[in-house]
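Teaching note: in complex prediction, the entire set of molecules is handled at once rather than each chain in isolation. The prompt given to students was simply: 'Predict the structure of this complex.' The entities are:
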Amino acid sequence: MATDITTDTSLQIGTHTLGSRLIVGTGKYASYQLMGEALDRSGTDCITVAIRRERLIDAEGNNLLDFIDTSRYTLLPNTAGCFSAEDAVRVARLGREILLGLENPGADWVKLEVLSDTKTLLPDPVATIDATEQLVADGFQVLCYSSDDPIVARRLKEAGATSVMPAGSPIGSGQGILNPNNIRICLEYLKEGDPDYPVIVDAGVGTASDVTGAMELGVDGVLLNTAIAHAQDPLRMADAMRKGTEAGRLAYLAGRIPKKLYATASSPEEGTFTAKPR
Amino acid sequence: MLVQVNGDDRELAEGTTVAQLLEQLELDARYLAVERNLQLVPRAEHAEAILVEGDRLEVVTLVGGG
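The expected output is the structure of the full assembly:
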C-alpha cells in the first residue's frame, strides 16, 4: 500500500497556519509584474514586505500593493535596514499599522532584523534579543532573523520569539547552508521538549538544492528572496524552489539511510556464479 | 509653519492635521502609516492630530523586500 504523500502537517508559526513551507520575499525583482508571477509559481502563501517612505513627489510609479492579492497572501513585514533595537521596534509598529489598515492577517507578526553592519548584513545578536523582548511585550509574534549560533537561537526563544530563523549564509550571498552542523544543533536546542517549535532557515539560499538540504535537516520552512528574484529565469527557479521544498520535506519524513564508510551491495550474494576477487 | 515630511521641509498652514496633510499629498491613508516625532500616529487619530512647528513626520508604505 503506497503511503499517502500528501499527509504532512501544515507549517504552524504561532497562530498562523501556512499551506507552504516556503516563504518568499518580494524584493529585488526586475518588475512587480514578474514578482507577482514568481510568487504564484512558488506556491507560497506568505510573503515578506519592507516598510519605506512613501514617494511624495512622484505619484507615478508602481505600487507594490497593486501586484499583490492581500487576500491570498499573509504579509510578513520585515524590519530590514534597521541597525538598532529602537529603530526595529519603530518599523515593526508602522508595519502593523499598515497591515491593520489592509486587514491582512499579518498584522500581528513581524520578521525582526536588527543588523550590525552593512557589509555582512549579519544580525546584531544583543540588539535582536533586546528588540524581541520589546516587541513581544507589545503583543507581536516575533520571527527572528538570526545567525546560526545555537546559543543565540536559544536566547531568542527564551526572549519569547515565536520562531527563530537562522541564516544559512549572508543575505543575498547564495552560498546555501554553510554550516549544517550548527543548523542541526539549533534544531536540537530549539525543539528540545517542544518538537513543533518552528525553525526556518532564512538568508543565503542560492538554488533548489540548498532548500532541499535545509528541509532534509529537519527545518520547518525556508525563507528566500534573492535566489528567485535574481535567478536568470525567476519563474523557473520559483518552480524549482517549490519542488525542492517538497522534495526535502518528503525526504526528511521518509527517513534517510545512514551514511556508511564502506559499501553494502545492492544485489544479493546468494546465487552468484562468478569468480570472487583473489 | 515649517515641518519635516520624509526628510524634506514643508510649509503648512497652522492647525493642519495629519489627515489634512495626507489629503494635500493626495495619499490614501489605508496603505500608509504615519509617524510623528518617532511615535506612531494611529489611523483613528489622524483627524485629531494637529501638527505644530518643527514636527518631524514619516509617511511610510509597503515596498518589496526580503
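Point out the following to students. The radius of gyration of chain B is 12 Å. Strands of chain B lie at 2-5, 8-11, 33-36, 39-41, 56-64.
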